[in-house]
Specification:
globular; Putative gluconeogenesis factor; alpha/beta; CofD-like_dom_sf; Gluconeogen_factor; cytoplasm; CofD; Rossmann fold; 16% strand; 14 helices; 7-stranded parallel sheet
Length: 346
């Protein structure tokens, strides 16, 4: 490993002043919303286009290391926040090293299970900062400064959230029955023989993060998706204050589709069904563009009609990696976002 050089970021990086696209050639101010690997993909692309980047992250995770820390300490689940910070780390020896440190997971020796087993070090660091500072946003700023993050990471809400959903489950006789599933990890793994019918956030009056609401208001572009549709993308539209902010912001809005529609959450759904589910969740939400890889869309006419219901124009682009896996390529995705931004300049 190369020896780290350069000054240690002893204080959080001050926030940059935001300005609308086109003002003195300033880069666009972009807010990306989501969680997990989907948000990491969009951040990896957007960081190539702008220095004014804010990630707003779902806080409903209840599985793995995040779930254990959430239950034991009553804190926001740190895992998706950690992944967003890692995606924004500076592309230097310092940034890459701290990215790997944040993502490192402790593994017990075979046959033994310790209290640190499967905990990500970054989760522990974030929770430590929260305990010391007593402020989730301040803690994330300090973590971002340590990584040299090219942007800011904010939680969607200031309290941990729970996702619950009504799921149609097929029994052994092939008959469908309704079941209530509570918890993001259980809902995300509902299984191939089930269909998520409706989802909700608890508490239903949870307060949104004020800094996140301000970022949405001041943005030039808001990017929603990709990500697990019911547990990473739609939750932003279920939180009342965030939904209102997203509907009322003067920013342009882009929805990024997934590279696979056949997931455990969305089994049997088409790409157009994904858009219909979003419209049911937030009838007043409008988009300027919907970005989709043409290889995922079975019926282009139906999909464009569904996008039109959201006020959006469909932009088709080959944004997947060349390896065949449903993973976004950061350079291709960045190129697609660049074209969308340029095509919507006033």
């Amino acid at each position: 490993m190369a020896i780290l050089t350069g000054p240690l970021p002893l204080v959080p990086v001050p926030g940059t002043s935001r300005s609308r696209t086109g003002e003195s050639g300033a880069p666009p101010s972009v807010v990306a919303l989501g969680g997990g690997h989907g948000l990491s993909a969009s951040l990896g692309a957007l960081r190539l286009l702008t220095t004014e980047l804010t990630a707003i992250v779902t806080v409903a995770d209840d599985g793995g290391s995040s779930g254990r820390l959430r239950e034991e300490f009553g804190v926001l689940p740190p895992g998706d926040l950690r992944m967003a910070l890692a995606a924004l780390c500076d592309d230097t020896d310092w940034g890459r090293t701290w990215r790997d440190v944040m993502q490192h997971r402790f593994k017990s020796s075979p046959g033994s299970e310790r209290s640190l087993d499967n905990h990500a070090l970054g989760n522990l660091l974030i929770v430590t900062l929260w305990e010391l500072l007593g402020d989730p946003v301040a803690g994330l700023k300090w973590a971002g400064a340590l990584l040299g993050a090219r942007g800011e990471v904010l939680p969607m809400a200031t309290v941990p959230l729970t996702i619950e959903g009504d799921v149609l489950v097929e029994d052994e006789d092939g008959r469908l029955r309704s079941a209530l599933i509570s918890g993001q990890s259980r809902l995300a793994a509902a299984g191939r023989n089930s269909h998520v019918n409706d989802v909700r956030l608890l508490p239903d009056d949870a307060p949104a993060c004020v800094e996140a609401l301000n970022a949405v208001e001041l943005a030039d572009w808001v990017i929603l998706g990709p990500g697990s549709w019911y547990t990473s993308v739609l939750p932003h539209l279920m939180l009342k204050e965030m939904r209102e902010a997203l509907c009322n912001t003067p920013a342009r809005r882009c929805l990024t589709m997934n590279l696979s529609v056949d997931t455990k959450e969305t089994s049997g759904m088409t790409a157009a069904d994904h858009l219909a589910a979003l419209k049911r969740c937030a009838p007043g939400m409008r988009f300027d563009a919907v970005l989709a890889d043409p290889r995922v869309i079975e019926n282009g006419e139906q999909f464009e009609e569904a996008a039109g219901e959201l006020g959006a124009r469909v932009v088709f682009g080959r944004v997947g990696s060349s390896g065949g896996r449903p993973v976004h390529d950061p350079l291709r995705l960045a190129s697609a976002y660049h074209d969308i931004f340029e095509g919507h300049k006033d």
